[in-house]
UniProtKB/TrEMBL annotation:
Residue ranges, annotated region (Disordered): 151-173, 477-565
GO biological process: DNA repair; DNA replication
Role noted for this protein: Component of the FACT complex, a general chromatin factor that acts to reorganize nucleosomes. The FACT complex is involved in multiple processes that require DNA as a template such as mRNA elongation, DNA replication and DNA repair. During transcription elongation the FACT complex acts as a histone chaperone that both destabilizes and restores nucleosomal structure.
CC annotations in GO: FACT complex
MF terms (GO), sorted A to Z: DNA binding; histone binding; nucleosome binding
Domain annotation Histone chaperone RTT106/FACT complex subunit SPT16-like middle: ranges: 371-465
InterPro entries found in the cross-reference section: PH-like_dom_sf (IPR011993), RTT106/SPT16-like_middle_dom (IPR013719), RTT106/SSRP1_HistChap/FACT (IPR050454), SSRP1-like_PH1 (IPR048993), SSRP1/POB3 (IPR000969), SSRP1/POB3_N (IPR035417), SSRP1_DD (IPR024954), SSRP1_sf (IPR038167)
This protein's UniProt keywords: Chromosome, DNA damage, DNA repair, DNA replication, Nucleus, Transcription, Transcription regulation
Name of the protein described by the UniProt record: FACT complex subunit POB3
């Protein structure tokens, strides 16, 4: 056997680019074909090896003694004998032939090994999840748990994670799985959860299976409080987005939001914006954190985390850091002791740990009530619009950030026919390059002039449709006044519907008779005017009934008499 064995077109973990893999007695290495950073592994760190079918042919999975996993994909079936001898002779490890379950069942058993979580169907692995790829886990329901995977870093990685950061394998792929959910009913013991035999320890307490799975995964994947010592903790902080109360644990490289249902672990590198915004009620402050990639809760994404603090709430806090760290790494960034309003302390610590600038509202704009926040709404969601030095910011939900550089123009308008049209107006912000628009509605009319002056100060194009509407309405009112004066000169009768028809309609049959039907009985010529004895009898009967009526009724009743006759 040669001193070095080489294999071409091999993919390291989930890398996009293939490379050459070389095996030697003192270890192995992989280098991308197009050039770049090479990966090496010492033979002393190889704890086991498995051979199985994979996406690009056959795969060698190397289990590291340091609880990591290395995957080499792209081998051919005939390479098995050659590789088996390499691992046995050079690394004293048997290359185990592992067959995966191909039934496609979604019901099986999850097992926790040293380096990965395995989902088995009929004692064969259906899939494995390395702990290094798991970024977070949450109890999503009564018997349901969500396992989240680390987001990509823009594809800069060659696909290998080693013992380093989370998610470097998946970041190399074009598409990425971001979450898997398991339904775990019933109860179990910790030994069963870790792959032991049921009933081997009768004294061991049974627990809810999903809770035990959650606790075990946090411990194995090192995503809990074991990730480092807490520098500062803030309890029961109200969050408007995502809604709820969370405890905030702040570590050296990340912070954690711990709620009753969901936990979130966020790296400081993901923080892109940090804003402190006073609410117009003068009682609260909002702390808004912009994240990229955004926070995920199922299918919902939260690009901003919005916290609310009382303005008069004071806190005394000592940070859990040494004097060496304070004078070295955090010099001029943090203090060992704080005794200030709570929102200021949280802002200072975030600024020091994340090394991000704190943004506040622009001093050049205030409302007619001398506030920085403008009460308005996006569709049916009410909130506050803030004019920052370089952008608009609407909070709390949906939290919307619009940079002035991305703004094409701004239109002031008023909704036609609205009851409050005279006291409020709308702002529509049009984006450049046809990126759409955002409308902020129901803004107090008294803030119009201040907004116009601020936008002109920032060099933004403004179109005021309210003045145009006012001129059109005034012209229309002038036309209406002229038209009404002409109508008064003519003096037409009011339209009373069928009442006019009753007054003006003429009963021709009735007019053919004499003007007074009452006098007809005493008229000497009434027989010659009638049409026969039957008609005369009818007239006499009706006249007898109407003797006690007044003159008006006497005139109207012969109408009905003639019509019925």
């Amino acid at each position: 056997m040669a001193a070095i064995e080489s294999f071409d077109n091999i993919y390291l973990d989930l890398s996009k680019e293939s490379g050459k893999s070389r095996f030697a007695e003192n270890g192995l290495g992989w280098k991308p074909a197009g050039g770049g950073e090479a990966f090496t592994l010492d033979s002393s760190n190889i704890g086991g090896a498995q051979w199985s079918r994979a996406a690009r042919g056959y795969e060698v999975k190397i289990l590291l003694r340091s609880s990591g996993v290395v995957q080499l994909d792209g081998f051919h079936q005939e390479d098995y004998e050659r590789l088996s001898k390499i691992f046995k002779n050079w690394y004293s490890v048997n290359l185990e032939n592992k067959e995966h379950s191909l039934r496609g069942w979604n019901w099986g058993k999850a097992e926790f090994s040293k380096a990965e979580l395995t989902f088995n169907v009929q004692n064969r692995p259906a899939f494995e999840i390395p702990y290094s790829e798991i970024s977070n886990t949450n109890l999503a329901g009564r018997n349901e748990i969500a396992v989240e995977f680390a987001g990509n870093d823009g594809g800069k990685s060659n696909g290998h994670s080693g013992t380093g950061g989370k998610g470097k394998k998946a970041s190399a792929g074009k598409d990425q799985l971001v979450e898997v959910r398991f339904y775990i009913p019933g109860t179990t013991t910790r030994k069963e959860a870790e792959g032991g035999e049921a009933g081997s320890d009768a004294d061991e307490e049974e627990k809810n299976a999903v809770t035990l799975f959650y606790d075990t995964l946090i411990e194995k994947a090192e995503i809990g409080e074991t990730a480092g010592d807490t520098i500062a903790t803030f309890l029961d902080v109200l969050h408007l987005t995502p809604r709820g109360r969370f405890d905030i644990d702040m570590y050296d490289a990340s912070f954690r939001l711990r709620g009753k249902t969901y936990d979130y672990k966020i790296q400081y590198d993901a923080i892109k914006k940090f804003m402190v915004l006073p609410k117009p009620d003068d009682l609260h402050f909002l702390l808004c954190i912009g994240l990229d990639p955004p926070l995920r809760q199922g299918q919902t994404r939260y690009p901003f985390v919005v916290m609310q603090f009382k303005a008069d709430e004071e806190v005394t806090l000592d940070l859990n850091i040494t004097e060496e760290e304070l004078n070295g790494k955090y010099k001029d960034k943090l203090q060992s002791h704080y005794e200030q309003p709570l929102h200021q302390v949280v802002a200072y610590i975030f600024k020091g740990l994340a090394n991000k600038k704190v943004t506040t509202p622009a001093k050049d704009f205030t409302t007619h009530r001398q506030q920085y926040g403008i009460k308005c709404s996006i569709k049916a969601s009410e909130g506050f619009l803030y004019c920052l030095e370089k952008a608009f910011m609407f909070v709390p939900k949906p939290a919307t950030y619009i940079s002035y550089e991305q703004t094409q123009s701004i239109t002031f308008s008023r909704v036609g026919g609205a009851v409050s049209a005279l006291s409020t107006f709308d702002i529509t912000v049009h984006m450049k390059n046809g990126a759409g628009s955002s409308q902020f509605s129901n803004i107090n009319r008294e803030d119009l002039k201040a907004l116009e002056e601020f936008f002109k100060l920032k060099g933004l194009r403004v179109k005021n449709e309210i003045d145009d509407d006012t001129n059109l309405i005034a012209a229309a009112l002038g036309d209406d006044d002229m038209a009404s004066s002409d109508e008064e000169a003519v003096g037409p009768k009011a339209d009373r519907g069928s009442a006019d028809e009753d007054e003006e309609s003429v009963d021709e049959d009735f007019q053919a008779e004499s003007e007074s039907d009452v006098a007809e009985e005493y008229d000497s010529n009434h027989e010659s005017d009638g049409s026969g004895s039957e008609e005369s009898d009818v007239d006499n009967r009706v006249d007898d009934e109407d003797d006690d009526m007044d003159d008006d009724e006497g005139e109207k009743r012969p109408k009905k008499k003639k019509k019925t006759a």
